[in-house]
């Protein structure tokens, strides 16, 4: 074979290889290059945890998983004998404080008032006699018949009886007026404190009956009847079906058109239906684990954002965990 023929064959082989590569590239471009990237998310829902402030034993569960509850429905009943014992103690303390306040308000008993009055009258009678005796002795002293010593003794006795009469009168007035204003205020404060303790225990007793605070669906029930639950331990979770949204993890190079307040279309595979959703939350994930490194080819790192959006219109049957797809 001539050199020219060999050269032509090599040239034809190279051209054929290039043609095949070009054909494969064109087929790949049209077959794969035009497919849009898909962003998959899922439906989320708000939940609130039902728990008690007091420890107790589950006496009764009024609902089960999957039940729909309304505000005010009874969810669970706990048995807490310690709380009932505290209520008896608090009520006894309140009764004792109320009795002390009543005694402070009413003052002394009638017999005590009467006794204080008799002592006051006795002291006044003694003062009257001592005063007359002193004046007689003073006249005799002025006439020179009585010594100064006797006059001084009569005067001292008169002043002593005067002080005794004043003290007896004070005791009588105290018995009539009852306790001092400060003592009455202190007794009233003790009653208020005891009543506050009763109200506090009442709030704990109310915690033994768990009531639904929001309407929703019972998603999880943790304890069984007869089991003990501690303070703050979860009893069940309620899914608030009215508050539902979709969560997506989106690379920043795919955020075009996704901004807070913007609407977009999301496909729901469960219903084979497209719905309108409105973005209300965007935040970067803040972790290198969700970065896409592209610096090796001379570009830059791409960060992932968490995007949350709510359906513009309610879709009947939409449930937490269902997939949402954005093209």
What attributes does this structure have?
327 residues; alpha+beta; eight-stranded antiparallel sheet; four-stranded antiparallel sheet; 5 helices; 12 strands
Beginning-to-end CA distance, first to last residue:
59 Å
Number of strands: 12
Spatial extent as radius of gyration:
48 Å
SS summary, helix count: 5
Return residue spans where pLDDT drops below 50 for at least 5 consecutive residues: none
Sheet with most strands: 8 strands, antiparallel
Mean pLDDT: 80
Percent helix, as a range, is 40-55%
**Assembly context of the chains:** single chain
Q: Determine the strand fraction and express it as a percent band.
A: 25-35%
What is the 3D shape?
A: rod-shaped
In terms of structural class, how would the helical and strand content be classed? alpha+beta
Series of H and E elements: HEEEEHHHHEEEEEEEE
How does this structure look, described?
It is a single chain. The chain is of the alpha+beta class and 327 residues long. It is 45% helix and 26% strand. It contains five helices and twelve strands. The chain has helices at residues 3-33, 81-106, 110-142, 148-177, 181-206; strands at 39-51, 56-61, 68-69, 74-79, 209-211, 216-221, 228-229, 234-251, 263-268, 273-284, 304-311, 323-326. The chain starts with a helix and ends with a strand. The mean pLDDT is 80.
Layout of strands and helices, then pairs:
Elements: H1 3-33, E1 39-51, E2 56-61, E3 68-69, E4 74-79, H2 81-106, H3 110-142, H4 148-177, H5 181-206, E5 209-211, E6 216-221, E7 228-229, E8 234-251, E9 263-268, E10 273-284, E11 304-311, E12 323-326
């Amino acid at each position: 074979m001539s050199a020219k023929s060999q050269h032509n064959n090599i040239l034809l082989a190279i051209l054929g290889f290039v043609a095949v590569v070009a054909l494969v590239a064109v087929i790949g471009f049209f077959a794969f290059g035009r497919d849009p990237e898909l962003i998959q998310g899922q439906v989320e829902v708000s939940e609130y945890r039902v728990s008690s402030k007091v420890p107790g034993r589950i006496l009764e569960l009024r609902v089960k998983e999957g039940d729909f509850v309304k505000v005010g429905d009874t969810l669970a009943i706990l048995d807490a004998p310690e709380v009932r014992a505290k209520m008896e103690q608090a009520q006894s303390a309140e009764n004792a404080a109320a009795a002390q306040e009543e005694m402070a308000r009413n003052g002394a008993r009638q017999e005590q008032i009467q006794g204080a009055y008799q002592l006051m009258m006795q002291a006044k009678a003694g003062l009257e006699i001592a005063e007359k005796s002193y004046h007689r002795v003073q006249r005799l002293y002025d006439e020179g018949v009585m010594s100064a010593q006797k006059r001084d003794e009569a005067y001292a006795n008169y002043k002593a009886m005067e002080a005794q009469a004043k003290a007896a009168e004070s005791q009588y007035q105290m018995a009539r007026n009852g306790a001092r204003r400060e003592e009455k205020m202190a007794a009233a404060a003790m009653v208020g404190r005891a009543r506050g303790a009763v109200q506090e225990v009442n709030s704990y007793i109310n915690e033994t009956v768990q009531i639904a605070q929001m309407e929703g669906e019972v998603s999880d029930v943790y304890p069984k009847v007869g089991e003990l639950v501690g303070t703050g331990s979860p009893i069940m979770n309620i899914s608030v079906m009215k508050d539902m949204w979709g969560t997506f993890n989106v690379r920043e190079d795919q955020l075009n058109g996704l901004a807070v307040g913007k609407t977009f279309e999301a496909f729901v595979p469960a219903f084979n239906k497209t719905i309108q959703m409105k973005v209300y939350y965007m935040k970067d994930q803040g972790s290198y684990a969700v970065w896409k490194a592209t610096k090796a080819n001379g570009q830059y790192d791409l960060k992932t954002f968490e995007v949350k959006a709510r359906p513009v219109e309610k879709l009947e049957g939409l449930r937490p965990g269902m997939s949402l797809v954005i093209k």
